[in-house]
Amino acid sequence: MASSEYEIIKDLPLWRESKSNQLLLEVCKKNGVDSGVIEKLVAWERENLHRGRRAGLTNEFDDIFVDTNLWEQDDVD
Known about the structure:
Number of strands: 0
Radius of gyration: 14 Å
Order of helices and strands: HHHHH
Largest sheet: none
């Protein structure tokens, strides 16, 4: 996780509390989701809470989902 993202989310229970963070990591692993995806999405949401209109934010949000480095790739034979 980028340090700037961590600064945005570090006060939340999922990152502040050890047990909660461990559960998050376990759930992510079980479902094949890089925990970085959750971190980026939560940081993005917190950064944009103050915006009244969400116009233009969809592209930024979509960029997180299309980042193939954050998703587990299944072998297809």
